[in-house]
Write a structure and sequence with these properties.
Layout (H helix, E strand, L loop, with lengths): L4 E4 L5 E5 L2 H10 L12 H16 L7 H7 L1
Antiparallel strand pairs: 1-2
Length: about 70
């Protein structure tokens, strides 16, 4: 079976990957949502993330390790 091939530009820098169609079809079967990975987030989701990041920036002392949450549960 042909493996993935790295495509390079004229300077030899990696610029893409080629995989055989049969491999791509198996990947899509195993991960049906793969083609939407990397799609832009909806505006409401971006806004929510921006708000959370701003809170962290303003109040870094409020951050706690995840283990603290688990201990409380």
């Amino acid at each position: 079976m042909l493996q993935a091939q790295v495509l390079k530009d004229q300077q030899g820098a990696p610029m893409g990957v080629f995989i055989p169609i049969k491999v791509w079809e198996r990947v899509k079967f195993q991960y049906p949502d793969i083609e939407s990975v990397g799609a832009d987030l909806p505006p409401w989701e971006k806004e929510f993330i921006d708000q959370r990041l701003e809170m962290v920036k303003r109040h870094p002392e409020r951050l706690q390790p995840i283990e603290t949450l688990f201990d409380g549960l």
